[in-house]
Amino acid sequence: MFNLFINFKPDNNQPYGGGNITTYYIQKYFQNKYNNFKITYEIGNSINLYLIIDPFKDNIFKKYSLEEVINHRNTHNKHGKIIVRVNDCDITRPNLPPSRSREKAIIKNSSEINYYIFNSQFIKNHYKKFINVKNSEVVYNGCDIAIYYPQPYIKPQKFRIVTHHWSDNMNKGYQMYYDLWSYLKRTNNYEFVFIGKNVPEMFK
How many other C-beta atoms can be found within 10 angstroms of the C-beta atom of residue 3? Predict the structure, then answer.
C-alpha cells in the first residue's frame, strides 16, 4: 500500500481557492487511476510521499506546516519524499513580514524538499534565483473538463470576456482588468465583466 499525505484537506463545497481545488482533483485523479494507495491528511509512521500545498497551517484546511512535516519525515519516515506545490512569491508583497512569507519558508527549507511543482514558468524562474529547481515541473492551473469543454466555434455577434477574483488586493491584476474594461468600452465587438468580492472603488 502506497501512503500519500497531503497537508490540505479539500472541501469541494467551500470557495477556498486554488489550493482547495488542486487538492480535490489530485485526490480524484488518484482514486480513478490507482487502487493500491491511500490518501491521508494525518501524519503517520508509514507515509511514502508528502505533498505540501501550503507551507503554513491554519488548523481548518491545513493541519500541519511544512516544518512539522519535515520534522516528522526525518524522525519517522527517512525514505519518504516531500513535494511542494509553489504558487506564489513575495514580488507583489514586499512589506510582508518574514513570518508570513511562503517564499521564505520554502527557501529556508529547500534542502529538505525533494521535488517542486510550480504553477507557472514565471514562478519557477523567480525561485531559480534562490534554490535549485532541477527536480521540478510546471503544472498550470486548469479547469474540470466535465464542466468546461471545447465546442464547435461559432463567431458570436459580440465576444464576452468574464473574469473574477475574491480578493481585494490591488496587486491581483486589478489595474490590468480596469485598463481592459476602459479600452473595450470603445468598441461594440467586446464586452468585459468583472465579478468580485469587496470590489475596489475603481470597479464600482
Answer: 17
- The answer to whether the beta carbons of residues 39 and 27 sit under 8 Å apart is yes
- Maximum distance among all alpha carbons in the chain? 64
Residue 6 CA to residue 66 CA, distance in Å, equals: 11
Answer yes or no: do 168 and 114 share one domain: no
CATH of the domain at 80: 3.40.50
Cell of residue 184, nine digits: 473595450
Cα–Cα distance for residue pair 123/103, rounded to 1 Å: 10
The CA distances from residue 172 to 51, 159, 166, in Å, are 26, 24, 10
Prediction pTM value: 0.79
Boundary of a domain, candidates 85, 106, 138 = 138
Range of the domain at 16: 2-138
**What is the residue-averaged pLDDT of the chain?**
87
Are residues 117 and 179 part of one domain? no
* Residues 37, 89 within the same domain: yes
CA-to-CA dists, residue 64 to 7, 10, 13, 67, angstroms: 6, 14, 22, 8
Q: Of how many residues is the chain composed?
A: 204
Does 149 fall in a domain?
A: no
Over residues 158-204, the pLDDT tens digits come to 888 888 877 777 777 888 888 988 899 888 899 888 887 766 676 66
